[in-house]
Amino acid sequence: MVTPITSIDVKGKRLLVRADLNVPVDKGRVTDATRIDRFARGMKPLLEQGARLVILTHYGRPRPNELDPGFSVDKLRPALSDALGVPVRFSDTCATNAAVILSESLHDGQALLCENLRYNPGEAANDPAFAAALALLGDVYVNDAFSCAHRAHASTEAIARLLPAYAGPLLIEEMEALTNALERPEKPAVAIVGGAKVSSKIAVLKNLVGKLDAVIVGGGMANTFLFARGCPMGKSLHEADQVGTVREIEALAAKSGCEILLPTDIVCATAFAEDAPAVTVPADQCPDGTMILDAGPESIAAFNARLNHAHTILWNGPLGAFEIKPFDQATMQVARRAASLSHEGRAVTVAGGGDTVAALNAAGVTGDFTYVSTAGGAFLEWLEGKTLPGIAALMPPKQAA
To answer: pTM of the predicted model, to two decimals?
Structure first.
């Protein structure tokens, strides 16, 4: 198990904290500070106890060794200062003597933000020399970026082996929420899995059908399942080469007693466009020249009825082309039902992934879910049952037999 930073006395210590402050910015201003606020919520008590924060983060995807000012994290400081409640100093480098001097000048309760990790090619390469330079910035390493824990980068993996390493409050919160939902769910437990392609979530589906009581499949993924059952697709997005995979997943589900729910009626249109003329037909009657863009009302009712009996609901991926009306109905209505069950205390609801968070925000129900993860790739790999490199690096070595 990982050890939380809250288990030690942090007064006077430089905590070298890996955060994920990769937030939306427009014209130099943060437009959505959700990640910053969640990070700050866990860090403020540590500052109050006398910790000295040295914060590492990436921002965007700059070309290594090209110091494009558009990717500087300095623009995050106003929002970060507001969230932490203290002025945040800035180092325009992250692995130099100048940065070390700034870190050593901090007093108890002060914070320093270092420049974008991804300006240096050593970050993505998990370069030991770069990690060693970063390690000079702190006395203790803290990983508080679950969303980056699936990457074996210098600031998430190599560095954890050079300093006493701990898990930050946000990382602990995320791990507990996801572990409880996937490994120790209160039954019945139901997953909602959507998105475009079965091929991108094969491992997720195989893992989930072996652990949960039911999996609702939607979006383009559902099309491939329907195609495997002989349903016509018209112009619909589907993966004809994944029929064997679908049958393998269905066999695993049958073996473990997991029910797979697919749309029984579908909403089709000739174009993926706002208010395109749409028709609702049985799932096996997609008209030629049209594409399946959402699940129909009969399917929505069946999905919600299944959720009504669930005590744990795990969600990743929208159920249709929710970005464009009227093809948002399955996603919106199922999201509102899950949120209602959570709000009433009838179910634990955990959701994650970029499109999923966007869909919940669009439905206005994010705040009613038990836990919403902002992680994308890390959330998916966790659903696959993988041990993430950034988490593994925080675990103490196994005792020799």
So the answer is: 0.87
Residues 6+ apart with CB under 8 A from 350: 177, 178, 181, 312, 313, 314, 315, 369, 370, 371, 372, 373
**pLDDT digits over 15-66, tens only?**
999 999 999 999 899 998 989 999 999 999 999 999 999 999 999 999 877 8
- Which amino acid belongs to residue 157? E
Instruction: Establish whether 354 is a catalytic residue.
Output: yes
| Bridge-based pairing state of the strands 25-26 and 291-295 | unpaired
Catalytic residue among 14, 18, 35, 52: 35
Give the β-pairing of 291-295 and 348-352: unpaired
Residue 35 annotated among the catalytic residues of the structure: yes
Cα end-to-end distance, the chain, whole Å: 18
Active site residue 257: no
| Domains along the chain with CATH numbers | 5-172 (3.40.50.1260), 185-383 (3.40.50.1260)
* pLDDT at position 400: 27
Catalytic residue (choose from 197, 206, 346, 386): 197
Q: Which of 41, 377, 385, 386 is catalytic?
A: 377
Q: What phi and psi, each to the nearest 5 degrees, are found at residue 88?
A: -110, 120
